[in-house]
Amino acid sequence: MSKAPRKGGYVSQAWLVIVLALLYGGALAGVQTTLGPRIAENKKSETYDVIPHLVEGAARAKTTERTVTGAVDGKPHPVYRAVTGDGTLCGWALPATGLGFADRIDLLIGLCADASTITGIYVLEQKETPGLGNLIGTDEFRGQFAGKRADEPIQVVTAGPVAGNEIRALTGATISCDSVADIVNATVENLREPIRQLGAQEPLEPNDVPRGRGG
Amino acid sequence: MALPGPTAAERFFNGILPENPVYRQLLGMCPTLAVTGAVKPAMTMAAATAFVLISANGIISLIRGLLRPHLRILVFTLTIAAFVTIADRALQAYMYQMSKELGPYVPLIIVNCLIISRCEICASKQNLGVALADAVGMSLGFGLALASIATVREILGSGTWFGLPVMPSGWPNWGIMVLPPGAFLTLGLLLAVAEWIGLRRQEKGTET
Fold it and tell me: Is residue B77 part of a domain?
């Protein structure tokens, strides 16, 4: 069966799509400009809420955000300096981002005060497959990272017992699990040394003002 | 001029019960099963879907005269995606914890067949008033379905409704009801009830 030829070129055929795309793009840019700061504030607040659960003994109100330089990639990175109620350094929380199976995965990685051990991870944002990859946010999966050495890469295993710096992959979500392990390994490798040096600069610097809200 | 078709009132009422998107058309099954473990997330999903459906139906109806048949699905999808993104960002800004709880199911509204089917069946063929009445009716029907399933699951599974305790203190929560099997069981049973009601109405109509 032959089809009747469509009249006009691509632009005359698709002008409505092009106009709508531009209009919607502009509208979404406006929405992002308006709501972006509020969303960023929500995420930061959540980060401060999570740190006491990630680093044992950390007090939310005393947690401060710092920028570390001297990372392996040569770029400045924000980190959170977790201290106890009496001001003693007890660990660090590192924001980390990487690509998962479906979309970007945002993590928060907890390190002990001398950056030698991972104290835990928390999934701030992910859009992995519901029922499979999104299980990376469960306590069962995240709990595997606590106590792992920071100077060795974490390996994901799919079968057999786990030992040392190994964690077990979730069934049906190997790519998501690998992604999380890769993000953790890359971030810890990138920031471990500058954080260790930053931790040695005790006591607090004058500009190190606590930013956490509430207790 | 609008093509002949159901009136605004018919579209509105059809969406609520006679053509209920969940119980009669089996559309939007993904959120129906995934976010009905409790009433709060179910109602948030229903509200987000309503916003997208009403907005998309309105826009598509306004530009229906400009639509090219072979590009119409692309225009529907583009429009729906824009409004879903707005709903997603608004939830992240003003209901952050709920947004986290709903997770990927808000962006997944884009692929909710209910919305694209209403754009195709009604909004691309009828005027703005009818399209909006259709969207509001279908949104109410979708919300009603999500609320009924979530109510059964939350009360039996958690002993609460909208987070408030409603069952006696000794109530042993039926854990399975808040898990995925509970969603299928509840949907199946309520579908059977809806079908039974439909058949009864049909029989009554035949008798009279």
Answer: yes
Residue B44 half-sphere exposure toward CB, CA atoms < 13 A: 25
The dihedrals phi and psi of A158, each to the nearest 5 degrees, come to: -100, -15
**Separation of alpha carbons B194 and B188, rounded Å:** 10
In a domain, B186, yes or no: yes
Q: Do B103 and A130 touch (CB under 8 A)?
A: yes
First-to-last alpha carbon distance for chain B, in angstroms, is 37
Residue type for position A69: T
Give a yes or no: residue B1 inside a domain: no
Q: Does A42 contact B86 at a Cβ distance shorter than 8 Å? A: no
Sequence ranges of the domains in chain A? 47-199
Residues of A in contact with B78 (CB under 8 A): 17, 20-21, 24
| CA dihedral sign, ordered B20, B23, B27, B30 | positive
| Cβ contact, residue pair B96, A32, below 8 Å | no
What is the domain extent for residue B138? 8-207
Please give the structure tokens belonging to residue B90.
């608004």
pTM: 0.78
Q: How far apart are CA B35 and CA B25, in angstroms?
A: 19
Torsion of CA A13, A14, A15, A18, to 10 degrees: -170
User: What's the CA gap between B81 and B129, in Å, rounded?
Assistant: 23
Each of the 215 residues of chain A gets a pLDDT tens digit; together they read: 455 556 667 888 889 999 999 999 999 999 999 999 999 999 889 999 999 999 998 988 888 888 888 889 999 999 999 999 888 899 999 999 999 998 899 999 999 998 999 999 999 888 888 778 888 999 999 999 999 999 999 999 998 788 889 999 998 889 999 999 999 999 999 999 999 888 777 555 444 444 444 33
Residue B92 near chain A (CB below 8 Å):
yes
| Residue B3, domain member (yes or no) | no
What is the Cα–Cα distance from B100 to B106, expressed in whole angstroms?
Answer: 10
Cβ–Cβ under 8 Å, residues A179 and A167: no
Total count of domains within chain B: 1
Burial of residue A91, with CB atoms counted within 10 A of its CB: 0-12 exposed, 13-18 middle, 19 or more buried? buried
User: Exposure pattern of B177-200 as b/e (b: 16+ CB <10 Å)?
Assistant: bbeeebbebbbeebbeebeeeeee
Name the one residue in this structure whose structure tokens are 């979730």.
Answer: A170
Here the tokens at position A161 are: 């017992």
